[in-house]
Amino acid sequence: MTKRLFTGLLFSAACLSAMAQQAYMVDKDVAVFYPANYDAAAHSPSPVFVHELVPQGNVPGNWKVKPVYSKEGDKTVVTLNVNADDDLYGTGEVVGDLRRNGKEVNFWNTDNYGYMKEQGKQLYQSHPWVLGVRKDGSAYGIIADNTWKSSLTTNQQIKFVSEGPAFRVIVIERANAKEVMKELAKLSGTMEMPPLWALGFQQCRYSYNPDSRVKEIIDTYRAKNIPCDVVWMDIDYMDQFKVFTYDPKQFPDPQGLQDYAHAKNFKTVYMIDPGVKVEDGYFVYDQGKANDYFVKMPDGTNYTGRVWPGDCNFPDYTRHEVRTWWSGLTSDFVKKGVDGLWNDMNEPAVFDSQTFTMDTEAVHWGDENRDKGSHLRYHNVYGYNMIKASREGMLLAKPNNRPFVLSRDNFLGGHRYGATWTGDNMSTWDHFQMSIPMTLNLSLSGQPFNGPDMGGFGADADAELLAHWTATGIYFPFARNHAAKGTVDQEPWVFGQKVEDVCRTAIERRYRLMPYIYTLFQEATVNGMPVMRPAFMADDKDPALRGEQKVFMLGDDLMIIPRWAKADNIHIPSGDWDVLQLEDKDDMYQAFVAQRPGSIVPMGNVAQSTIELDQNTLTLLVNPAEDGTATGVLYQDAGDGFGYRTGEYAKFQLSAKTEGDNITVSIKQVDGKMDMGQKNIRIGFVTDGKITYSPYVQGNEVTMKTVKDKQMGIDLKKLKFSDIDPSKQPTIQEKLKIQVEKMKKSGQAMEW
Ligand code: GLC
Q1: Does the annotation mark 344 as catalytic?
Q2: What is the number of the ligand 1 atom nearest to the C-alpha of 408?
Q3: How confident is the model at residue 739 (pLDDT cuts 50, 70, 90)?
Q4: Is the CB of 236 within 6 Å of ligand 1?
Q5: Is the C-beta atom of 351 inside 6 A of ligand 1?
Q6: Does residue 722 have a cis peptide bond before it, meaning omega lies within 30 degrees of 0?
Q7: CA distances from 386 to 104, 272, 440, 616 (A)
Q8: Which atom of ligand 1 is nearest to the CA of 207?
Q9: Which long-range contacts (CB under 8 A, 24 or more apart) does 66-75 make?
Q10: Cα of 417 to ligand 1 centre, how many Å?
Q11: 739 alpha carbon to ligand 1 midpoint, in Å?
Q12: Is the pLDDT of residue 39 over 50?
């Protein structure tokens, strides 16, 4: 216990009983508050924290953000008063604006096609977490350590209402929002390095079947020279939607399919849902039944609900032995020719239930670490516990590969086990635009690896939407095009040559930026900093940036301005940001990518997949600060495997200095013991957006003549935005109407 912690004023006993029975510091400027009669067994183990919180001293009396506990009927209420003019963020996967002030979120994970149920107030995941940023830039984070069904309203009074017993609240105080995110990561852990291929562009659809169609997709990507790393298998690869099976006619040879994909530098990801079809003779059901592995009703029968295959039982992932069983099934499955896993419908989604999920009185048995409890308690961590088992299963099958699991359902802290996407959005402009604040708020809730279905899932995409969505979406951490059954195809080439070219250019940009993107992911594994960041993080003292939700940052050094964002309604950080001219020709769709003054961004060359990336041939894009200097970082490793844990990586310091008319850029390994071999580097010198390239040189240093004529800052008036007016595009309702008509005509059922 540090002396400093004890120098603050202690809570008086009277003050404590009005608010919380006990409160301790658990880290520097991090306090935990316990309610009176705290029932630890009803909440532990916490899914949020990697280590149990250890008291380190008393909370100073001048502590600013404090919970007050009360009751509303049977419900537990916790309120925290904050300043009226604080800006609030986070709160997980949410629809609406970036700023979360005056919003309501229900923490009850729900299958929510088109975000239409409950006006989108309850989606697939729960993150009982608020990030608050004060006018002076100082910031705080609030964690409600509670998985029970609950809700959150965010006003001057932040209010959690829970159907479970009173829970502890953790409050982080920091100098700014970035430092709060780092502390959240310190407490809740960081994700592990994903395989490099998972950062590549990915193509999905509900569904590509039979396997010849999968091969066709792979071949078309390669024939058209559009970079792509992953092809996804949705439920139709299964035998009658039974998990851990393959359709014997349509997917007779998964290993052969994987070999085919690998030969073309593609990876394969397969969907696995939690619902196990009730069918005697089906091995997964037989094993689950024989060992009593399914979630029960209070009368002891298995809970049964309908999902894709019909009536299903659901594994009780609160039990250690069930998770072990699931890991084993996963491992066997993965060994048959699978590179990554996609866990869906794991809220769990149930079609024939009025609540779209299990009955709240369903019983989860728990294990040596957690008590038996009702679905009311365990619902929100159903997917969390599932993907924990899935990840283990992948590791069992391939101990030398980094697991990749994508999950629709999750909980605060679940970024440790899987990446996520934002579920069933729609191919509409409002969902496209909203995907920016959604991804940002999930990122500000501790989940760095997330993104939407690019092009939109439900309803038909069209040429303009796909072109713009791809041109913006490739800067999101997770970049996958996916569409629902019954909608038109939306691969990059289906809307004609123009859109195909726009998509190719955009996707090539992602691959060119891969050295920088991979470095950002590595940063997230170390300190939890989001890969995609809100514009206000570039300057937390600029009030105009607090609500900016069209422009966003990729790391600290690149700012992305979507082409449809109009100059008169966006705010950009001040400073000599330069919009990069990344191609010779402008197609009027590519997002403007602006580089921070004083930064060096490492770029590679176009490759058709991450396997083909040449890690040693680099363009070091330099936008010098006024004094002619610039710095940057580059992280490299094998792209897969765990060697990095024992130092098999290389971290480089990039530095630039100007002397007279010359600028010199150097690259120096400062960490890690991996020898990446000789570098072939050139400078891309940025002035007023134009990039002037030096010749490539072999070695660690390159010098070129500087180019003068530098402008100060982005002149928004000079940027040519696209003509499209997002507010004039069809709404979800209009799109759905068209969709329903189309389906009625074709005799198809509405299916997604
Ligand atoms: C769910 C998923 C979607 C998937 C579909 C069929 O709606 O969210 O991505 O395509 O199920 O498996």
Answers
A1: yes
A2: 8
A3: confident
A4: no
A5: no
A6: no
A7: 27, 10, 25, 39
A8: 10
A9: 66/19, 66/20, 66/23, 66/33, 66/171, 67/19, 67/20, 67/33, 67/169, 67/171, 68/18, 68/19, 69/19, 69/20, 69/35, 69/36, 69/166, 72/161, 74/163, 75/161, 75/162, 75/163
A10: 20
A11: 17
A12: yes
Question: Among 89-98, 135-144, 358-367, 725-734, whose mean pLDDT is lowest?
Answer: 725-734
For residue 347, indicate whether it is catalytic. yes
Question: What interhelical angle do 497-512 and 463-473 show, nearest 10?
Answer: 10
Atom number, ligand 1, closest to the C-alpha of residue 206: 10
**The pLDDT value given to residue 689:** 80
Neighbours of 175 (CB within 10 A): 13
204 Cα to the center of ligand 1, angstroms: 10
Q: Is the CB of 234 under 6 A from ligand 1?
A: yes
**Burial profile 140-157: b = 16 or more Cβ within 10 angstroms, e = fewer:** bbbbbbbbbbbbbebeee
Q: What is the mean pLDDT of residues 92-100?
A: 98
Burial code of 320-354, b = ≥16 C-beta within 10 A, e = fewer? eebbebbbbbbbebbeebbbbbbbbbbbbbbeeee
Report d(CA 630, CA 655) in Å as an integer: 6
Cβ–ligand 1 contact at 206 (below 6 Å) = yes
Catalytic choice (87, 347, 464, 540): 347
Q: Per the omega criterion (within 30 degrees of 0), is the bond before 47 cis?
A: no
The pLDDT of residue 346 is 98
Is 424 one of the annotated active-site residues of the chain? yes
The response to whether residue 347 sits with its C-beta less than 6 Å from ligand 1 reads no
Percent of the chain surpassing pLDDT 70: 96
Q: What is the mean pLDDT of residues 723-750?
A: 83
Q: What is the DSSP string of 332-353?
A: HHHTTT-SEEEE-STTT--TTS
Residue 199 token pair? 């950062």
| Predicted confidence (pLDDT) per residue in 219-253, tens digit | 999 999 999 999 999 999 999 999 999 999 999 99
**Strand pairing category for 450-451 and 168-174:** unpaired
Per-residue pLDDT at 18 exceeds 80: no
The gap from C-alpha 361 to its chain's centroid, in whole angstroms, comes to 31
Residue 269 banded pLDDT, cuts 50, 70, 90 = very high
Which band of pLDDT confidence, cut at 50, 70 and 90, is reported for residue 516? very high
Residues 615, 616, 617, 618, Cα dihedral to 10°: 80
Atom of ligand 1 nearest to the CA of 273: 12
Host H or E run for residue 373:
strand 373-374
Residue 13 confidence (pLDDT) = 35
The pLDDT of residue 752: 44
| Mean pLDDT value of segment 272-284 | 98
Specify the DSSP class assigned to residue 10.
Answer: P
